[in-house]
Recover the amino acids of this structure.
């Protein structure tokens, strides 16, 4: 009886993931070098990194950073079932039932984003070396015509 009561108390504390974890998550983006403009495929943007975005737990997207003199860098951000999110989802079996499981599945509350934080490295754009001018060539002196006087025959 005590074991069953303890299990029920643990399940109640776990609750459903929607309640314990929420339906949004903060994603932090850093760049090397810092100060790059950052945007996502979901229309989030910030003028200079590092920055943080609030996104829905089930949203997957691409983060792109750009800075003058550097090539743009992009990275996809995916979702996966989190360890404590799975516990909250499983807690629905005892506490929230099918309705709680449906809410967690619909909101993505049992998911985490990866990578988080997102770290992007921008590569400098290689500058073409200035074309070196070859030294001006002086015209070679023309060979002097050598005339031999031939004896008349």
């Amino acid at each position: 009886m005590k074991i069953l009561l303890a299990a029920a108390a643990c399940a109640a504390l776990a609750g459903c993931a929607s309640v314990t974890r929420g339906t949004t998550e903060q994603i932090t983006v850093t760049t090397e070098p810092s100060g790059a403009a950052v945007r996502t495929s979901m229309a989030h943007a910030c003028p200079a990194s590092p920055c943080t975005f609030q996104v829905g737990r089930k949203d997957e997207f691409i983060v792109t950073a750009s800075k003058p003199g550097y090539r743009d860098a992009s990275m996809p951000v995916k979702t996966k079932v989190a360890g404590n999110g799975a516990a909250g989802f499983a807690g629905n079996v005892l506490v929230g039932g099918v309705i709680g499981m449906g809410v967690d599945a619909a909101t993505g509350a049992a998911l985490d984003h990866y990578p988080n934080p997102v770290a992007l490295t921008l590569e400098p754009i290689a500058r073409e070396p200035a074309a070196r001018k070859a030294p001006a060539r002086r015209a070679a002196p023309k060979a002097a015509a050598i005339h031999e006087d031939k004896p008349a025959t």
